[in-house]
Amino acid sequence: MIRRHIKPLWIGLIAIVAALAFGGSALAQTPPNDRDLRIYAGLHAAAANGDVAEIERLIAAGERPNLQDSNSRTPLHVAVYRKHHAAARALLRLGANPNARDADRYDILTIAAVHNDIELLNLALESGADAGAVTGPDDGTALIAAARRGHVDAVRILVARKAPLDHANQRGWTALIETVALGNGGPNHLATVELLVKAGADTEIRDRRGATALTYARQRRYHEMIKIFEAARGRKT
Questions:
Q1: Can you list the domains of the chain with their CATH numbers?
Q2: What is the mean pLDDT of residues 116-128?
Q3: Which of 18, 85, 210, 231 has its CA 20 to 30 A from that of 10?
Q4: Best CA proximity match to 135, nearest among 95, 115, 108, 171
Q5: Smallest Cα–Cα separation from 79: which of 118, 32, 144?
Q6: pLDDT tens readout for residues 203-229
Q7: How far apart are the C-alpha atoms of 102 and 29, rounded to whole Å?
Q8: Which of 27, 14, 9, 4 is CA-nearest to residue 209?
Q9: DSSP letters of 39-90?
Q10: Which residues, including other chains, have CB under 8 Å from residue 233's CB and lie 6 or more apart?
């Protein structure tokens, strides 16, 4: 009887530890801090202030739109972190690279996905951001980032843009596994599971510990998710 419960408890502990890691500084995005904002000049300052006219003037005068700061953030990264939509739009129109990465390997699409900024998410995609890009220090994707947080609208948009459903990060976690293992089991995460499964996400993928999304759902007693996974399994047999 004791052996029967060792594996579920062990898997649950793994999920808790990983959740702490995801919430910690090692994988956190790094927006400009107060010191950065004080020392910014040129396009970085204009982006931080959301000053579209100054952005246009500086680029017309020859300033490079993809110049990076000490953390490899371009002015576009800064505008996106600061949620200056008009400034981001102007930078993209004037040659900013939508797929540039900062020092943490985040692109603007993943930043928008994490913050559930739908306007910027759509802007990034319309401007050529790669929905399939592998981003962040854990080799994730914008879809994984959105799914883990239960950002249903962002997930829906990324799925429609053919983001890879079954890409696994360094832990072997797909968007589907992260939704269950790191989500709270609430309505948004349930809707995310439904959306991903309906789109064709593989429910049988195992992470590096040998667990599937169903394994985590059972361990955490997410009964509605369990029904979705068991129904998907039944359709395959």
A1: 8-24+32-236 (1.25.40.20)
A2: 98
A3: 231
A4: 108
A5: 32
A6: 999 999 999 999 999 999 999 999 999
A7: 9
A8: 14
A9: H--HHHHHHHHT-HHHHHHHHHTT--TT---TTS--HHHHHHHTT-HHHHHH
A10: 203, 204, 214
Q: Tokens 């759509």 correspond to what residue?
A: 122
Residues 6+ apart with CB under 8 A from 47: 55, 75, 76, 78, 79, 82, 84, 87, 88, 91
Place of tokens 């990034």: 124
Three-state DSSP class for residue 176? helix
pLDDT tens digit sequence for 3-58: 444 444 444 454 454 544 444 334 689 999 999 999 999 999 999 999 999 999 99
Q: pTM to 2 decimals? A: 0.88
Residues 151-206: tens digit of each pLDDT: 999 999 999 999 999 999 999 999 999 999 999 999 999 999 999 999 999 999 99
For residue 135, the cross-strand partners are: 140
- Here the tokens at position 191 are 């809707």
CB-count exposure of residue 34 (10 Å: 0-12, 13-18, 19+): exposed
